[in-house]
Amino acid sequence: MFDRHEGGEEALLVHIDFHNNEEQEDLLEFEALVISAGVTPLQIVTASRKTPHAKYFIGEGKAEELAQLVKETGASVILFNHSLSAGQERNLEKICECRVVDRIGLILDIFAQRARTHEGKLQVELAQLRHLSTRLVRGWTHLERQKGGIGLRGPGETQLETDRRLLRGRIAQILGRLEKVAKQRDQSRRARVRAEIPQLSLVGYTNAGKSSLFNRLTEAKVYAADQLFATLDPTLRRLDVEKIGTLVIADTVGFIRHLPHDLVAAFKATLQETREATLLLHVIDCSDERREENITSVESVLEQIEADKLPILQVMNKIDLLEDFTPRIEKNDECIPIRVWVSAHEGIGIDLLWEAISEILLKSHTRKVLILPPKYAGQWRSYFYNEKMILSESISEDGELRLEITISHSILGKLIKKYPYLTELMIDE
Known about the structure:
Blueprint: E1 10-18, H1 27-36, E2 40-49, H2 60-73, E3 77-80, H3 86-96, E4 99-101, H4 103-114, H5 118-133, H6 159-194, E5 199-204, H7 210-218, E6 235-241, E7 245-251, H8 261-266, H9 268-275, E8 279-285, H10 291-304, E9 312-317, E10 328-331, E11 337-341, H11 350-361, E12 365-372, H12 374-386, E13 390-395, E14 401-408, H13 409-418, H14 422-425, E15 426-427
Parallel strand pairs: 1-2, 1-3, 3-4, 5-7, 5-8, 8-9, 9-11
Antiparallel strand pairs: 6-7, 10-11, 12-14, 12-15, 13-14
Helix pairs in contact: 1-4, 4-5, 5-6
């Protein structure tokens, strides 16, 4: 679609230090992104500036130095740890004679590699097209207006206008497909809400160990690797847990500093699983020196998707990388668990994590004992058994069934409203 220099596997990395800038990007994270994209970094070019250069972002002298480095190293792509304007990318490509990709373009490329499901591919393409639409000015600049023919003569349409029209059409088509996917997700979500099934959603900075923890909790085999954005498509598993009953656990895409707004918008359907969760498990790499910054970044994204008001349990993962550290649960002044220290990779502290999850979820549940005469025993035992609510059961000499159950306050209220006689069958213990 564009007259562009071909991309490659070997790259020069460019990182500029802007003083007193809160939006400063992290160099180590940038290197991890590059490696996750499957690119070999040849050399890192760093510099300091007060403000970006209007034409080249890095300054004219630095741009010429970069062009010389391209010739010496044979690099086929230059990766910037910053967001560049279309004009800056075009000017740099002209002087360096190789492809230039900014931070957003790099993240989009990684997402394109990771997408596996139909929905994930649509979401990535939507984000790419929205990003591309701001850079159409560089395409087809050498072409004249389209030529007319007999019956078609006139001023014609420029290739740029054609590209924009085609992009708008494709974006509208993808939005339509994603809307259908969103409706299907809504139907499943509404069914879970009606059934009062709690949903746990794993959130956290990319590479914090969410997929490893998900596999440990669910005994699933979700792809987990020591790289950024190893998980892109959401995965849900239904579990039957003692004392809680049935619940759903969702593994979601990892967050990152300054996550592009186009990506947040494109992954709206995916992030909906996070926004409507009963409890968020915020997985944190406790061995990372920048963990406090990572926590702030995740909280910022949660605020963007309006999920910052949900109950959160922090899961301090990778304690096996710390010296002499044992798993434990930390509670607040109200004795509610707020933090659990575990190692998903080694399976350390997982029992404590389940204990904390159960304690939080059971705050919305109550334990009841029912003494059921034979005429009601079969009906209610079957119901509570199917809903995984039974904690214990026994039969008296008179043939009455004693059931100890755990049930949410809302479901109990609905049952009593529909079957008032249940209150007479409940006893306090």
